[in-house]
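DATA SHEET
Item: assembly model
Revision: 1
Owner: S.N.
Input lines:
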Amino acid sequence: MDSVSSKLLLIILLLILSNTGPVIASPFETVITLNIHCMDSRKKPLAGARVRLTSEGTIVFEGITNMSGWISISLPRGTYQLVVDWLNSTVFSSKIKLVEPSTLDIICSVYYLEIIVNTLYLFPVTQAKVTIERNGTLIFFYEGELQVPYKIYQLSGELVVRLPRGRYTVSVEMIGSERKEITLTSDETVVFIYVASIPSLITLISTIVAATSCILFLIKGRAKRY
Amino acid sequence: MVFIEYEAKDTMVHRLNPLSKLIWFSSLVFLLTLYLEPQPLLIIFLLELFIGYLAKVPWRKLMARAWWAFILSIFGGYTFSLWVNKPSQFWHIPPELGCKVLLELTPPETPLLGYTAITYGGLLWGTAITLKVFLGVIAASILTYTIPLSDVVYLWSKVLPYRLSFICVTGIRFYPVMMEKVREIIIAAKSRGWEIRSKNPITRAKEAFPIVLPSAREAMLLAERMALAIEARAFGVKKPTSLRKFTFNSADVFFIIFNVSITVALTCMWWYYGFGKL
């Protein structure tokens, strides 16, 4: 090999190795880089999603998205079946054609379930045990404090959970328990009203006592003393 | 300072035991000290309107006499709210919402003033402070409108030593008397051509001598007459007996339960849910 052609080869090699951008396209190879950004229904990154690419039934790539929901794949040109799994559910599936380096933003079927726990719709429950099951399998468990976010004239104990599309059984326990079946096909809110906590009970009882004593005061106060 | 004086009316609130009304007032003052956000203050406002309606408070008279206090509270509240713009000042409201600037007035490096801006959180705080003063004035006015001074004296004598209670009541009772005397002295002085013309505070103080001296003389004369009167009634020999006995009836009990339970409910909401926290 003469020195000119060996230098040219070295330059090409260096160019390939030094390319730090997201997309590598070598004119000499058929390997193409595809960057996939997995997002949920609110376009928030979906971390930890399993991304699979299959070609004629064979898995050609498998990987997990990073904290920002990104994954980088290098594969030869061709048509692939892209499948994204999250929490043991397929949240995205589509055929893709790899012809040139590209970035793919995908909105997965991952929705937000807002769980509101208010005793009799009025007073928020601040401590609760929340379990979410799908087909008898525990998907989510939380025991602790529920947030009462700042809202104008609305108080509610809230917990927001991200779940794949599907049918779930949501149970909330504290003083009393309640169970609800939900089919998640979009962002949804589910309200539990027959669960109480000590603060919500104290507040509720105080309010009932106040209302009752106010009525009794109005009745008894009419009577003249002197 | 009394905005509306006691009027002997036969309303549900007037008929209540003074202690019940004092408990209502105390619980209200306690709740007012808790809040820095206007939402629960609107509930308290409705409660005050309810009690005021039952007491048949002359609202027009109250507004005519206390308007300056309300204006002052609006001015003071919203002025100080310009400095409510730091994330550390917000406990319950998300700082990004509380610090949302509507209008920046002075940049952070401004000498003396520092950073001032009209923020969403600042407006909430300013409204809360204004409402607190407003509600405090209304509550105090309802109290003075429905409790005669003699009942206040009786209640004070239950908790304070009777001599101290007497001193406090004398001070309160003689305030309007002395104001009336001073007014008479000013009218008399003006009829003789007296007037304060200077804007210099020292000169003004000197010019006020024709009023101050007769006023002090009047005060001393009043005190002397008072001393003679109480001596003639053998004050200080033993604890005076009360002319009136107060009893609690069922309306009093329900009124107290109502106030205590409302206070407990609102305090729980403040403590556990952050209701009323900035």
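QC remark: Chain B has a mean pLDDT of 87.
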